[in-house]
Queue: 3 jobs
Job 1
Amino acid sequence: MSLTSSTTGGASSLDDAPVSSFHRRIMVVAMGGPFCDGYLLGVMGVALGLITPALALDTLWTGLIAASVLVGVFIGGAVFGPITDRVGRHLMYVLNLATFVVFSALQFFVTEAWQLLVLRLLIGIAIGADYPIASALTTELVPRRMRGPALSGLVLAWWVGYGVSYWVGWALTGLGDDSWRWMLASGTVPALIFLFMRAGIPESPRWLASRGRMDEAKAVVRKHLGQEVSDEELLAEGRQEQRGGSGLGNLVEIFKRGYTVPVVFCSVFWICQVAPAFAVRSFQPQMLSAFGVGSTYGASALITTIAVAGIGLGLVVVNRIGRRSLLISSFVCINVSLIALAVLPLHWAFMVVALFAAFQFFEAAGSGLQFVYPSELFPTDLRATGVGIATAMSRVGSATSTFLLPIAAEDLGVRGTLGIAVAITLVGLVVSYFLAPETKDLGLTEASSRS
């Protein structure tokens, strides 16, 4: 997309704008939703063992509560992605985190399993709405050289939130039988912090131009980026992008416009990353215990900390080796780790912990592409819709695997369940090999036009 400056010596597009403090602020603030999502899911991994006796959960309820937030993310991504493309990024950017704050706090007061299920579902919807909003706004406001690291940084924020939650949850276990209440409600704190940080973030000028609101788009660029945008470029932008549908109509429009392959690719590789990963992370202490590892909460916190280094590696190399190479190599390493866990006779706890850590490290390294690819492969008027669809489909896989894992483990054992994870990640490897494009050197218009 080319919004050109008319005040500098030569043409300067938003894709090639110099990195500024405003761009860095956008990147940091956008991390709020993924951080809260990671925190929400991670702290449940610690709290679930305490919630089970407190609320008298059986296997069915345990699976339902663990998967409920993922079902909510599916709903939030599928519904609010298209809505975000219709009403804009800014309004939804604040409302969804405010919702998260309220429902997170209410978790402290639950007395029945169904109450916790409903609250986790509603929290998931708020988080699911944030994914297409934050990724679209980040993609449309940061320059090309920053786009890969900035979008990978959203997943880094998820991992930091996930890792922090394990250490906080572990620390709160000393509060007694009700410590799980404090664990779940503690997610209110980071959500409030990021909610206040989002004050003053502007609407995307690319989205404003796509709706014909040229004066507002020019004002945003002038105020926050220090550029003057030509009328010709904004008018061209408006004519180019006004083809989209309205609201949920974008779900049809995205296929009518020829974006079926990007939808399939983004959905499948994302599912194959998160389906085994979310299931393992949700029940990691229990799985480590099945392998004979003591101090499972401490081991889980250590594994999660190592995983954060994995997404850090992905963030560093995403613009160097490229999107395609990173995705394929990460799937190869994930498969090796899972196969080793499923078939090798592991007699030492440190080997079990090392292999779980390797699995999470390499899954994390490739997971940054979950925001990069969908954000780059769809045009402005369909970007939030595309991200929302991919997010929703990924959560179908993760919710299903999380719900079924405790049931499958009873029938197949931990190793048999890990064998299923191997099959899923092999599908991801094959699909990535045949469908993953390379977009690291392309502008947004080029990347989406090649889809």
Note: The radius of gyration is 22 Å.
Job 2
Amino acid sequence: MGAQSAGPLVVGVDSSTQSTKALVVDAVTGAVLARGQAPHTVSGGAGKESDPGQWWQALGEALDQCGDAARQASAVSVGGQQHGLVTLDAAGAPVRPAMLWNDVRPAPQSERLIAERGGAAAWADRVGSVPASAFTVAKWAWLRENEPAAAAATAAVRLPHDYLTERLTGEAVTDRGDASGTGWWASSTESYDAEILAHIGLDAGLLPRVALPGEAAGTVHAGHLPLPKGALVAAGTGDNMAAALGLGLRPGLPVLSLGTSGTVYAVSTHRPADPSGTVAGFADARGDWLPLACTLNCTLAVDRVAALLGRDREAVEEGGGVVMLPFLDGERTPNLPGASGLVHGLRHDTTAGQLLQAAYDGAAFTLLTALDRVLDADAAPDAPLLLIGGGARGRAWRDTVRRLSGRPVVVPEAQELVALGAAAQAAGLLLEEDPAAVARRWGTARGAEYEARPRDEAAWERLTATLADGEPLLRP
């Protein structure tokens, strides 16, 4: 252990698309005493799939790297990638690889479900979200249609974090935060929706129970992991809800997360219901709400453009009128699952650096267009943006967000916020405290501050016009 511990130890886990991270954290001070990380693989091609067994193996490897610190933990919690469809047979083994959040094959099922159940406004009013192709409800509909034998062999349906929690505890438990991304948990009643489940042919008995905020899922019963048997296991939550906990978010403070995907969200005390589908009306892990918009193309797409241009990702240049919408993987915000990248306004004098800057602008623009929908009407228009994720460390990303948002930016020093948020949830359970208050005590949101810049209205107008005029090309 790299530092002295003042209080009991907790483990926070981040099981993401690409890897599993584990942190051992002092529950009182927030000091990170040990960390570990192990990779997963994701299939290429049209489908984005992973074997859930890899996540469990990676969890074991990450905990092993934490050494003795993990063996002294009193509580553990798992934050996991949202929306993934994990199908298990009667013996608890995966029927097939999990379909991940960024698998857009269920786009036709998504559109059909929206139409069959009263349209987008009806879904938003009832469920809190309009179920895009990312949502688990569309993935289950796709599976029944395309792999009926796999659907018929399914004896349990889980989300990625549920799967790991169940293997830790032997208990089938989820939480309201991650459940709110399924499309079959209704925010209006805070329960599974019997009519939607009947419509998609999914028996409620196949689903985990939804734990209340602050309730334990169980205790560690898996003997071969380097965790103490009998340690408390929190209910866990989705990765975005865990990151919000990790920052100790209060209502009105927006977060922009720049990772493989981009997200913008804020905690709200009002239940969200956006009929446009831009904002997902998620629940948070505490009892409030987490309106959130997600883009599929963020740092990975911009890095791909930099590679195509043969430039370092920071080698941007100002000027020029070129516009790029870097929708390399289809897009979710705006909802254009069949889209590809679009470049408009290319001239003889356009430089490679300007084209790379245009990729940054296009990726940031789609996130920032959702910001006003995510924030409550009474939120301060000059509240700083908390910039997190891998991109937040990049000067070009920070400068782009400041130029297009007109807001000040804070980059928290704390990294691994999903794992930290899971640790805060575990600490909250152990200490019988609000996990967001635990994170605020840890000081996780402190960081470098960057003052506001005037918004680049000309660039904003070019992007708005290109998106509107280019829609027939983006919707093949």
Note: The first strand starts at residue 9 and ends at 15.
Job 3
Amino acid sequence: MVVCASFACLAQVSFASQQYAQDSAPYLWMIACVLVAIPSGLILLARNSYPQAVFWTACLLVVALPYDSLIALMALTSLLARRQGTKVTLRSVLAAATTTIWSQVRDALHPAEASIWHAIFSKPYTGVRYGNTMVMLVDERTIIASAVVVALIAVAIATLAGLHIRSRALARVAEAKAQSANEQVSRLRTTLDNQQLADAIAAEAHDTLAHSLSLLALNASALQAESRKLKAEAEQLGNANVAGMAGKIAGTTEDIRRQASGALDEAHSVIDMLRHPEDARLQLAANDAEASLTRDSLLQLIGDARAANMRIDTWIDVQQLGQLDESIGVIAYHVVQEGLTNVRRHAPGAPVSLQVDANPPQGVHVHVSNPTIPQSSSHMADTRKGAGLPGLAKRIQQAGGTCQYGFDQHNVFHLDVRLPWVG
């Protein structure tokens, strides 16, 4: 396009210069127009970013200088392809038609030796180059009319080409929007199916899990009552061993009842999350936003645990927590929370050792440990495998940290987590 536009402008300037003497001022003007015509097509390179500016500049060049209108027609096609609107279309087509007609009629009005149109309608082998006078095959009116008709046809072709390119672009946009809408429908259908599945799981959990936990809490209460009754009868009979064993059973059943009640509350909470996923997302997002490792949040966790009758020995050495990466702070908070929650669930009454070290050079180190009953350590290990530690460990590894947990040879459960200062 650049080459064709520059060549068309250069050709018409070359013909127009034939009517002037070489030592005249108009001939020097023609030389200047030739120099401008050579790079004139380069303005089309900016047609994508500035189609209107390129079009009006091309029209100005054609009107002000003896250039061919091809450059303006190319700019018209680019403008119509990239800009919509009835006003823009009509204004640009009218301007292009006026410019093209002016360019072609101007050439047709030049003397025969300086006109491309006269060269087209001249008799072969006539003219100055052949050493004789140019003989025309048609009259001047036919030449001018032909120039006007060709100009209008050229404008129509340029207009239709631009509108065709625009329609194809609009069709591609419409197709992309339709594809996006279909993908959105597919996602909504998948979301609906997932929600229906979540509702079915919630209903099944409510009918089975919640019912089973309720029965467990009820049976534990009944067993506790019977154990207390047995303890009272044994004390009346003076059997201290039986009374002591009955007291231990009553205490254990009380722990079972409390754990079953807590599990039932958590089950109802999970069921509500399944039934209302949007509320669950907001709640979890809010929890993550509020749960970050700070001095206040750490003291709050420890205070809540002690208020629940947990015996906690702490070693806290934290520095510059205000500079801790926010995502790392959230994970560290959940580590401490999960460690204390696991002790409360799986080893109620056991003393807890909590160590938290945090500083920029070493990162964050959290260690939670608690002794367990030797006979039940294997059962507690199986129980903890189903808890939140595996998910927490995966989250820690994704953040670039390490997570280790398990029992030592003394049946002490350890949770050891190390996190980088920056995620």
Note: The radius of gyration is 45 Å.
